[in-house]
Write a structure and sequence with these properties.
Blueprint: H1 2-24, H2 27-42, E1 46-48, E2 52-55, E3 61-64, E4 67-70, E5 79-83, E6 85-90, H3 92-96, E7 102-108, E8 111-116, E9 149-163, E10 168-181, E11 188-196, E12 199-207, H4 210-214, E13 219-227, E14 235-245, E15 248-258, H5 261-267, E16 283-291, E17 297-306, E18 309-318, E19 325-336, E20 368-379, E21 384-395, E22 398-408, E23 411-420, E24 426-437, H6 438-446, E25 454-464, H7 468-473, E26 476-489, H8 493-499, E27 510-523, E28 526-535, E29 539-548, E30 553-562, E31 572-573, E32 576-581, E33 586-589, H9 591-621, H10 631-658
Parallel strand pairs: 7-9, 8-9, 19-20
Antiparallel strand pairs: 1-4, 2-3, 3-6, 4-5, 5-8, 6-7, 9-10, 10-11, 11-12, 12-13, 13-14, 14-15, 15-16, 16-17, 17-18, 18-19, 20-21, 21-22, 22-23, 23-24, 24-25, 25-26, 26-27, 27-28, 28-29, 29-30, 30-31, 30-32, 32-33
Helix pairs in contact: 9-10
Length: about 650
């Protein structure tokens, strides 16, 4: 019983001491000193509008009601920060010595407004003097605030971002923040958690030298940020290096991982992007980055991953001109673009034809660029490129791509492609090719699989329009074609000429050729040719006609000649028409031309018989042809000589009779 009474007595004494301690805690003075120190450090007025009560737990200090921090003078918006309540903790040992040293501040129900003016000034710049408000301290010194604390805590805060330069505004809710700065010259640590447009966001930051960093100089910085649930973050960022804010500059190792593009777009205030299934596994960027005080950004030893694709990258981004300018060099062993393309093959026969979906090239005007790309292999679904080496220069929405080398369909391609987005879309292609395998190329681009062999040629074509269909129908240009050692499948010219049987043009028939040569022009999306020549072992052919690229149809006439002699002379001509859709053309005989050919042959036969008869008569009459003289001319000359001799004889006899023989 005695020990119980003693225990009760001790508790009473401790309670009395606690009450006495509370009575002796200078709460009002603590609050005023804390407000003054923060005002002096930040160059802004801190006001305490609520009641002030002393506290012993969890720290010795004071609890105050409503508090506010003045906004920048240029903002003219009252307070930058308002809070429902705040707790201020002081160093108990210093308090016993009669000194007040603020060690902890906890603010609940805060509303923080971050502003950027149209001229670029920001209201959180406390070191340059731009943020000085009414009643503030000296400010504008350009030095770091002389401030230290064990912990500053924000609970259930609301942060609004107002950007007068872009007219945009954002708000984050449920923000919690813990900052530690035990020594002004020591490290500053900050942890943050919030929800922005429903996206959970977390970040941690450590500045090795707070004095230098808060004064605007470069300090070692470690930064990490994540979105999404803590156990399965969707996007993440890591930075290890140096950074400063006045002016903004950084240099260090950066690693960015993108696993939730939708969350990232919401954080940036953009609509949700349409992400190809290939990017379901996300993307990543890593490398050494440098952000200069002039605002240029540089990447070295970069590694870019988009889904399963990986590229090495070096890049420089500057913002001094009318538009941002990017200079970059990309390289990869293999690039597979098939998962990112909505359609890897052209429309085939029986479909609506070329796509009429609008082509949006507005993105070409967002920046200027010069990008070099080298890849061992590029898969597009339509074609496979190897040994690719090209450079694209983008200037004011006009992109010029120079293809130094590219191998496709077993051959080589070089040339230039221009995509002009100034006031609409126009394309120019000036390409040269050599050694291309024809059948896979024509199958990939036109759905035509009737021609084999290898080809060389060139094309220079210009087109304009807002869709693939409009581009094809507006095409203008010219080109040439030189094919060697191949076959025309589904068409047996020699057999057709020999038998005049249309079945030779059916499935399985073919014409083997040694060469096909010709040139063409393109006007209004229609290709025209009038000098096609085909050389084959048993047949030769010439061709002329039109190919409507927009309608994807043929209207062509081929005149083959089946050779009769070893020297290539003689033979039979049977004109052939090719018409209809190019994926399933119709072959037919030009019967009118065939009839003319028959008449020509019969006329030649009659002429030959007449010549034979004339030769026999000339031989009977003793007419001898002179060199280079035809039988008709020889006969005419013989008759003229005979007539002249008769006339001369009669005239002589008449003259003799007239002059009496003298």
């Amino acid at each position: 019983m005695r020990w119980v009474l003693r225990s009760i007595a001790v508790l009473v004494i401790l309670a009395a001491v606690a009450v006495a301690a509370i009575a002796f805690v200078p709460a009002e003075r603590i609050a005023r000193i804390a407000a003054a120190r923060i005002s002096e450090a930040l160059g802004r007025e801190v006001r305490i509008d609520g009641d002030v009560r002393p506290t012993l737990w969890p720290v010795v200090g004071a609890r105050v009601g409503a508090v506010s921090l003045a906004d920048a003078g240029w903002a003219d918006a009252g307070a930058m920060l308002r809070a429902d309540s705040a707790e201020i903790g002081v160093d108990a040992r210093a308090l016993l010595d009669g000194r007040i040293q603020v060690r902890r501040i906890e603010i609940a129900g805060a509303a923080l407004v971050l502003r950027r003016a149209a001229d670029g000034r920001v209201n959180w710049d406390f070191g340059s003097g731009a943020g000085t408000g009414a009643g503030a301290g000296t400010g504008g010194t350009g030095t770091a605030p002389d401030l230290s604390f064990d912990e500053v805590v924000l609970r259930d805060a609301r942060v609004s971002w107002i950007d007068a330069a872009t007219g945009s505004s954002r708000t984050a809710t449920g923000l919690g923040l813990v900052a530690t700065l035990p020594d002004p010259a020591g490290p500053l640590g900050v942890t943050l958690a919030a929800s922005l447009d429903g996206v959970p966001l977390r970040a941690e930051l450590t500045l090795a030298d707070a004095t230098t960093a808060l004064a605007g100089g470069l300090s070692a910085l470690s930064l990490s940020a994540e979105t999404g649930p803590a156990e399965t973050p969707g996007n993440s960022l890591r930075f290890e290096g140096r950074a400063g804010h006045a002016p903004l500059a950084a240099d260090g190792a950066l690693e960015v991982r993108l696993g939730d593009p939708d969350a990232l777009a919401r954080l940036a205030g953009l609509p949700a992007p349409e992400v190809p299934p290939a990017l379901a596994s996300g993307g990543a960027l890593s490398g050494q980055v440098t952000l200069t005080p002039e605002g240029s950004l540089h990447l070295r030893a970069g590694r870019l991953r988009a889904g399963p694709q990986a590229l090495s990258a070096e890049a420089d981004l500057t913002t001094a001109g009318a538009r941002p300018r990017l200079v970059a060099s990309l390289s990869a062993d293999t690039i597979d673009l098939r998962p990112f393309l909505t359609s890897g093959a052209p429309a085939q026969a029986g479909t609506a034809g070329w796509s009429r979906a609008p082509i949006d090239v507005s993105a070409l005007g967002l920046a200027d660029a010069e990008v070099a790309l080298r890849a061992g292999r590029v898969e597009t679904g339509t074609l496979t490129l190897t040994a690719l080496d090209l450079t694209t220069k983008l200037d004011a929405a006009r992109a010029v791509t120079d293809i130094r080398s590219a191998e496709a369909f077993g051959g080589a391609i070089t040339g230039q492609v221009v995509v002009n987005g100034r006031g609409g879309l126009s394309l120019r292609a000036d390409l040269r090719a050599d050694g291309l395998a024809l059948r896979p190329m024509l199958t990939a681009f036109a759905g035509v699989n009737r021609l084999t062999g290898t080809g060389a040629g060139a094309v220079n074509v210009l087109a304009s329009g807002g869709s693939v269909d409009a581009l094809v129908r507006s095409a203008e240009g010219s080109g040439r074609l030189d094919l060697t050692a191949g076959e025309i499948l589904g068409l047996d010219l020699a057999g057709m000429l020999r038998t005049l049987d249309m079945s030779y043009m059916g499935e399985g028939a073919k014409t083997i050729f040694d060469a096909i040569r010709g040139s063409f022009t393109i006007a209004g999306g229609v290709l025209s040719n009038d000098d096609l020549r085909l050389d084959a072992p048993l047949v030769q052919a010439t061709g002329r006609g039109r190919v409507d690229l927009g309608a994807r149809t043929l209207d062509y006439r081929v005149t083959p000649v089946a050779l009769a002699g070893a020297d290539g002379s003689g033979g039979v001509r049977v004109p052939l028409t090719i018409s209809g859709p190019w994926s399933a053309p119709r072959f037919g005989l030009d019967l009118g031309a065939l009839a003319d050919e028959r008449l020509r042959l019969e006329r030649e036969a009659l002429d030959a018989r007449a010549q034979d008869a004339l030769a026999r008569e000339a031989e009977r009459r003793g007419i001898v042809r002179e060199e280079g003289e035809s039988l008709g001319d020889a006969a005419r000359r013989s008759l003229e000589d005979s007539a002249r001799e008769r006339v001369e004889g009669e005239v002589g006899r008449a003259l003799q009779g007239l002059f009496g023989g003298n």
